[in-house]
Amino acid sequence: MNPIEFHNAAYSRRQFFRKSGTGLGVAALAGLLGQRGISAAEQMAGIHEMLPQIAPKAKRAIYISLIGAPSQIDLFDYKPELQKRFKEDLNGYLKAQGQRLTGMTAGQATFPLAPSIFKFNQHGQAGTWISELLPWTAKMVDDICIIKSMHTDAINHEPANQLICTGSMQSGKASLGSWLSYGLGSMNQELPSFVVLHATHSSPFSNVQAISSRLWGSGYLPGKHAGVALRSLGDPVLFLKDTPGISREMRRSMLSGMNELNQRSFSAIGDPEIENRMQQYEMAFRMQASVPELTDLSAEPENVYQLYGEDSKNRGTFANSAIMARRLVERGVRFVQIFHRGWDQHGDLPRDLASQCKDVDQGCYGLIQDLKQRGMLEDTLVIWGGEFGRTVYSQGKLTEKEYGRDHHPRCFSIWMAGAGVKGGHVHGETDEMSYNVVKDPVHIRDLHATLLHAMGLEHERLSFKFQGLDQRLTGVEPARVVKEIFA
Fold first, then answer.
1. How far apart are CA 342 and CA 348, in angstroms?
2. Domain 53-485 - what CATH class?
3. Which entry of 73, 203, 243, 464 is 20 to 30 Å from 87 by CA?
């Protein structure tokens, strides 16, 4: 047999069922499987039934992911009474709480209480307590809603980051941005609907956590919904420029010929990945024209750079990424995720946390004010936060000016802004130790349900059939929309 004919005849199990839908077997198969017999193409067409059933508050979103976990007790969760209990051993308290300990502190003989050494002051109309480490955030406290009652299931970085980015601690799941791309589609055919930015120039003292494309991958969703990462050095996208000697017309002709061959293979085999590949080739061709204009910040006026801070002119900094995020959503990108690493302060927290906060504080202020001035904040949702919190006790050495904190999943703080979110509002409370949530808990699943709700999607209806299951971002456990944070 001709090798090509042999390849085309070699159906996989998945391809067999897909092909069965085009022949006489479809009636019998549909009768046996019922709704389970829906084909991939029919399922994609049916996504329109899951489009906004509620009035969306947001058209687009920017998620600022601080990898490593910022310390809530040093930034937002003010606990002044702990100053009187400096170095108190919490060993008995932790045992009574049933605390899960990481391997980094499980062997400690004592667990000395470490109050924050940073000053807090009240800001805004509601008198919200903010650490001195975030002076620019303090200036915009009436624009943001702080959620102090976040909690998660994971105690280590990799599973915690996967959980907050994909809704599951297991690999292979679709990311939040991919779900939004799948559910809502693109607003600009020249750019991806989901773009990832890496603020690689973080402070030199930071303990940098490794991250991978699993956090912005499409998992079982079609590949076109995966996040497209723009590089912070060199060309934003590899192979963006045409090869010398090849004109745009020649490139277009080559791509058309390649698509024709791929279409023949798709017609013979029916593998949806071939169709995805064709769509990605077309997107890449369009990006060759759109990305250079997008990433050229030379036309930005000086007052914009001043708003975001002195680092905003330097590629790879958080401030520069924040400007790029605004430019992306301004051009119709549905979801932008900025990753900033180095928030894992197990030791020398006062030095490293102060440095990390300086990296992002004015950039965040600039982003919110820039969106606000352009009339975009009212339909752009901005989220800021890490994957879990930090312990009230010190890891390792503790002095009056030096301490570190271990991982803590039971409570942490994030903030949100825009798209109808209540500015100047604080949601949730923790106990006197910043250890447990005592009021209005918000799980990661609740956060995801709330983000989808803000974008006009119902988390229980947005699904994709894979391996016989209706996969959802929020999984099968209960999740609720935190409606209290919306005006």
1. 13
2. alpha beta
3. 203
